[in-house]
Amino acid sequence: MVEWRQIAAARRLLESESGAVLRDWGGRVPVVLAYPNSYAVGMSSLAVHGLYGWLNALPGVVCERAFAGLGRRVALRDEPITLESQRPLQDAAVVAFSVSFEPDYLNVIAMLRGAGIPLRAADRAEGDPLVILGGPAVSANPEPLAPLADAILIGEAEEVLADLIAPVREGWRQDRRALLEALAEVPGVYVPLVYEGGAIPRRVLSDLDAYPLATRIYAPRAEFGDMALIEIARGCGRGCRFCLAGYWYRPARDRSLEVIVAQAREALRHRRKIGLVAAATSDYGRIDELVGALRAMGADISVSSLRVRPLSPVLVRALAESGARTITLAPEAGTERLRRAISKGISHDDIMAAVALVADEGFEALKLYFMVGLPGETDGDIQGLIDLIGEIRGAFARNIVVSVTPFVPKAHTPFERRAMASVEELRERLDRIGAAMGALRVEFRAEDPDASRWQGVLARGDRRLGEALLVAPRPTPKGLARAMERQGLDPAAYLVERPAEAPLPWDFVGGDEPECS
Prior knowledge:
The protein contains 18 helices and 17 strands. The protein is an alpha/beta fold. The protein folds into three domains: 4-194, Rossmann fold; 201-323, Transcription Regulator spoIIAA (2-Layer Sandwich), CATH 3.30.750.210; 325-460, Transcription Regulator spoIIAA, CATH 3.30.750. The two termini are 42 Å apart.
């Protein structure tokens, strides 16, 4: 039952925002755009902003948002409600989840359970909402959530939304089976209950300019609520062998400078700071021109990520002039040998040149991202990582933060079949790095190996894992572990090396060529 405090919290959030669409449901197809994490996280996702705007632009549609918590934390004990009109999710024709990260699978289940929507797609009756999933994690490997999904969008959503909504508009209160069959006819849409085999093509938007993507709702309580976000490029041509985004969002595409500048001009009416979003901002083909144009308009600049090479001095200086105190670089591995093995494409000299540039521009802090447990990693590579940070410490006298995450094999990457390191091995290596960082007076942060291993289980899961997700007594790793044990499933079996001839749960996804919109 919805509590008054939830309604009050939703109304307070709405009052703090600008740009939300408030529309009567009468005569329209009601769609709930659900983000399976907190409001603060969800409203920092450009996917939420884009989908919300595109869906509300469709004739005869009303789209409202829902989150797994109306603050900065997930609150799974609450019944989820829509933000705009505080309605239960059960009232919608469609509940569309945007799922970017595997750990949020558990939140998807918790939200459906809290909303009183049958978890299993086969158990939903006429009048129950359609549950449609999208996003990179679930697109790349749909099988762990296939038992609960009425439909899963494979790839990018922009030009598929109208085709998804058309059959819903015509028949969502009528024959559910016929509606699922109609959705299955849309290229790039996987409907597990009627799927009869064959490859599901991946949808790719060929012209980014046709669908400008930027902040639509200005939400001060979002994680990046002090800035307007603009997507300047999508995909990455670098080919790092561990990176899902780099392979899933191929080919790499730039948005035109003219479209970005026009978006920025509008955004500056609301925020002085512009956040440039891309897999690697410094790879944007006209980055120096873009930075110059934005600074000439009076914008401060923030970025989502920077590559060590190329690293534009113009961009770095603009970040410093915009008041940034910290800059983040991702060497990923500590030795030249291992960086070559993962196709990182940067040398020791590239790293040190980037550090020197950051030091010269006066940044107060340098964040460095590394991975452990990479395929082929040795004790010598761990020592090389420690030695590299020691050299960086000598070149950058201010605050250094080193963040280390365990390698997780992901579908559709060259490392999709590789084994994941054991918890014991990961902890031993993280402890060794952490001790060395203390001696170097470097702040050290590490992702928990147990959490990383569960991410790996979900990333490489199959339909059997999906069944365990549905019957887990609690939407937590511990609850999932109990459900898997009862069904005779070993989590570790999902993390071993997969032979080249062994079929993979996601083999049917994507095909040889993407379906271009």
